[in-house]
Structures are given as C-alpha cells and as structure tokens.
Amino acid sequence: MTLLTVSSTNHSFTNISKISTKTLVQMNDVWASYDSKNYVLREITLSIDNGVNYAIVGQSGSGKSTLLKLMNGMMKPSKGQVKINYQTPDTHDKKFKPLMAKIGYIPQSLGLIKNLTVIDNVLIGALPRIGKLKSFFKMFPENEIKEAEKILKLVGLEDKFERKAYMLSGGEKRRVAIARALIQKPELLLADEIVSELDHVTAREIMNLVADAQRTFNLTAVMVHHNMQLALEYANRVAVIKEGQKILEIGVEGDRIVDFQTGNMTQKEIIELYNQ
Questions:
Q1: What is the DSSP string of the chain?
Q2: Where are the CATH 3.40.50.300 domain residues in the chain?
Q3: What's the fold here for domain 1-102+186-276?
C-alpha cells in the first residue's frame, strides 16, 4: 500500500530494474566520535547499491556530514565497519588510494580556490592522473584540458572557462564543484548540502544537473539534504538521521513511496517530517 505520494517531476533517471545487486557502500553498526567521548553517530547500518541516488536527510548537527566523511575515508569509525566497494576507506592507507580517485566528494564549503580560474579549479579533480608537480606548474596534458572543457560545457559553463571562482554566483560555483568531481571519473559521488542557501529555482537546476550526470556517467550518488521533499523528489532511497541515529529509510519508485523502514515513528510523524 502506498503511504505517501510525491509530486512527479520525472527526475528519477535510474531504472531500478537495471541496478546491479552489488553493494557499493555498506555500514554495519557504525559509531563515530570526534573526541572519543561524545558520539555524533550511533548504531548506523545501511547499504547502498550501484546506480542508486541515495539521500541522507536531517537537521544541522544530526551527523549527516560525518556519514560522508566516513564513506570517503576522511574519518574512521569509533566502532563498527564501513566498506566502499568491499574496501575499508582510509585516506592514510596506500591500499585505499586507487579507490579514492573513484570517489568524487563535494564538501558543503565546495572547496574551490577563489583566485584560480574555473577551468583550473576543475583540473584539480584530475590531480591523481596529472601528478602534483605538473598541476602546481599548470602543466596540464592537452587531453585533460579538453576533458575539462567538455565537462564544463556539460554543466553549462562553456562561457566561463577563464573566469575566477570568486566572480561566480552561488549556482555557478556549485556547477564548478560538480565538474571538478566529474573529471575524476568517479563511481561514487558524495555531495554535502550542495543546494543549501540556493533559491528554489537554482536548487532544482543543480539537482537536475546531478541527476543528468548520474545517468550520463553511471554514478552512484549519496547526497546530504535538510529538505525532505527535495530528497524524495530526486532519490531512489532516503535515510533520515536524527541526533546521530538512522530513524527512517524510505524507498522511492518514480513518484511513489513504495516502502519504509522505521522503528517507532508513527505515520503522523512521518507525514510531518515529509511536510517540513
């Protein structure tokens, strides 16, 4: 039985019947702390299959960003197990280095270098292939420059190649951050509040862009949101995090919610959460 109906926008590009059953991201009873005393995440168990657009929704301070840091190896769990493509993520482990290049990460701050041009910011994403020395002296191979130009056209910035990052609008900066992640040729795209502080129209433009990229590059996307309605509109699955715990997970097919997993939330509470 359908619990809720989401307004149809036809942005769910991933055909669920074609998704591989291979699990790309797996967390089992994960706890995380920044000070070894207070846990920002507790008892997190989730799995994300290849090709899925997975949204994580919660209020500020709920632990959403920490989940992404665990997935890209910037942080280790205090307890429990995290696996990315069956490997333990750790940026300090040389064994994980080849897989790091396959994880595109867009932080909430976007991480752009404001005095560099748009195309130079994007080419930073090709650093694993170019090397630090060549990148420092801007000795970019011609094929990488052409690839950056191609991706910038894809994200709608074909007339902004040489513009400095600080001169861009909020939406344009996000497009550059997406392009920088895409030039990595990632399998997994992690995006932290990428549409926060954007107006309604620009936010959907960015979400459409990510959905197009997911379809074009066959990506698995994990996106952090604070807007439940937006998450349901674009994602295949939505996890809700509250005070460090996963309290709800919803499966979405097209414009319908087809299943939900919850402990002790009432239907009224779920509907109120959806209407936030």
A1: ----B----S---S-GGG--S-EEEEEEEEEEESSSSSEEEEEEEEEEETT-EEEEE--TTSSHHHHHHHHTTSS--SEEEEEETTB---TT-GGGHHHHTTEEEE-TT----TTSBHHHHHHGGGHHHH-HHHHHTT---HHHHHHHHHHHHHTT-TT-TTSBGGGS-HHHHHHHHHHHHHTT--SEEEEESTTTT--HHHHHHHHHHHHHHHHHHT-EEEEEES-HHHHHHH-SEEEEEETTEEEEEEEEETTEEEEEEESS--HHHHHHHHT-
A2: 1-102+186-276
A3: Rossmann fold (3.40.50)
**Which of 17-21, 36-40, 221-225 has the least mean pLDDT?**
17-21
- Convert the pLDDT of each residue in 23-68 to its tens digit: 899 999 999 999 988 999 999 999 999 999 999 999 888 999 999 9
